[in-house]
């Protein structure tokens, strides 16, 4: 083999080695960071198109993914939006893109995102079975401690006392275990408007809620600081109604 051919062969070999090294680096070492990059539209579209797990109260789903028939395949829907809005939060394209939401980080859709999206390590076996069976992988369900009757009673009672535009909150706990049985905040909102596949409508609805002086996105049961005197309402409420033992009332803006 003459020198020019040998030189060209070595050069081609080095190019192939460089290409293999780059592919290995991108697909193995940088795979997670590239998938999590909000500018990666393919990853965002794929994540938003997957069916998320349901959020359950009792045995009833209050948040689920339904076939949509559009480019994103599944629509996140909330069956009792006003009563559970501050508990569930919402999931839309902008959440999938950024991975964060400044006004909904303390809600189930965000705090349990890994489980609902199916990325939690506890679902590894399920993902493996889905892969081997060539089935679409779905997220895991999240069951809440909320009692549907208690949640409905708290929501209806608070609206009756304050009116639909009143500002206040109710939290009911099980004293023995600390389980949250009810959590309601007023004023409330419809998370279905924020989970729409019409991104223009989502932006418009989000801006309207953000600009509302009543702050309907604020979960007053856990995101407000009230004067110390408000803690005494627990005692007055219990004195007025013995069945209110274990129920905490928070009023305020």
Protein topology:
Elements: H1 3-29, H2 31-36, H3 41-49, E1 55-57, E2 60-67, E3 74-78, H4 81-88, H5 93-98, H6 108-111, H7 113-117, H8 124-132, E4 142-144, H9 148-162, E5 168-173, E6 180-186, H10 191-194, H11 199-211, H12 233-240, E7 247-251
Parallel strand pairs: 1-4
Antiparallel strand pairs: 1-2, 2-3, 5-6, 5-7
- State the shape: elongated
Biggest sheet strand order reads 3-2-1-4
Which secondary-structure class do the elements indicate?
alpha+beta
| Total strand segments | 7
Structure description:
The chain is α+β, with helices and mostly antiparallel strands and 253 residues long. The protein folds into three domains: 3-36; 41-144, Penicillin-binding protein 2a (Domain 2) (Alpha-Beta Complex); 148-196 and 212-251, no CATH class. It has helices at 3-29, 31-36, 41-49, 81-88, 93-98, 108-111, 113-117, 124-132, 148-162, 191-194, 199-211, 233-240; strands spanning 55-57, 60-67, 74-78, 142-144, 168-173, 180-186, 247-251. A four-stranded mixed β-sheet has the order 3-2-1-4. Strand 2 and strand 3 form a beta hairpin.
